[in-house]
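Risk mitigation, structural track. In case the binding assays with zinc ion fail to produce interpretable data, a predicted complex structure has been prepared as a fallback.
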Amino acid sequence: MKISDLQLSQVNDRINALISAGSFYGKKLEDAGITHVSNQEEFEKLPFSEKKDLRDAYPLGLMTAPEEEIVRIHSSSGTTGLPVIIPYTAKDVDDWAIMFRRCYETAGITNTDRIQITPGYGLWTAGIGFQNGAEKLGAMVIPMGPGNTEKQLQMMQDMKSTVLCSTSSYALLLAEEIQKRGIKDRIHLKKGVIGSERWGEKMRKRIQEELGIELYDIYGLTEIYGPGIGINCKYDTGMHYWDDYIYIEIIDPVTLKPVPDGQMGEIVITTLVKEGAPLIRYRTHDLSMIIPGECPCGSRYPRLGTIMGRTDDMMKIKGVNVFPSQIEEVLKEFTELSSEYQIRISHLEGKDTMRIYVETNGTVDFVELSGRIAERVKSRIGFTPLVKVVEIGVLPRSEKKTKRVIDERYE
Ligand code: ZN
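Fallback model:
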């Protein structure tokens, strides 16, 4: 997705603000000798920003607008070291609500819906983002916050909530409780807006079936406003994202060069109008791709594919970047396989080799099946693996998360 002239001029405004605020990024730019970009090529020379930069700026080093204009901060979780503090101006808060309203609208949610919000409130961007967007839309908000399933279900019935905003795991828990209690006919939910976690197709199906609702994936991260920068529409062909607020590039996480639309890589985000803490070329480490072409819904907003994992999961085989989730996607197409598989990467006779072990029952021709799988991987991902088909039960199983990828090159 090429950067437009309008987007370029917005980037230049952000560059000026960052330099005059003397922020970490302003300094990076000065070190790189860049104070202005006038085309794609120049934009792609701008230094990246990383989570580490944001942590180093703790507590308020990201603040780019004058203090009197900052109305709020949010913080991302600090599982390792210091958290990240993101300051927002009133305009940032409003822009975020506008984007979030657009998300609801894209999901076909209107001002006559009743939206039950279960993500947390507070330093997190979750709950309040869902709320501000819903209020902007004019819908009725039921601001529950997380937990207290008893009360959630009571309010869901009494208030006749039509939309559930939640994490996938909590949606599943609620779905199971509803089924267990046999109260499905007293639930009025039609749609679920699900954010913040990676979730599998199986889980999605279960929630969808048990609750009988349409599900929408919302994308976002605290560093870039919060949830609400993109969502899928009813055609479910990827998540539309709001390119009047953010510019997205997909880069090869190894060479750091942009990849063409339709190719998997790391999502890098530039905020175009953010005031409190603008970010330029922020590496999310989330893996996805820009989906080329137009969506049947007719939306003019570009699309991002499903988040396929994190860059840390990436493997490089014969010069091709591969992610375990891509292999998993291919394997899922073969109904004769069990859900277990193992990927082994080794360096044999000067070449990187990927072996994929899969399981099936004795009724199929192992050789023929392995040939078909190898061919499919080749056509989808671009290299030919060695596929070994084994009897069901042969691959190791463990109570904990099974280790599915073994890289023997570094052992
Ligand atoms: Zn669409």
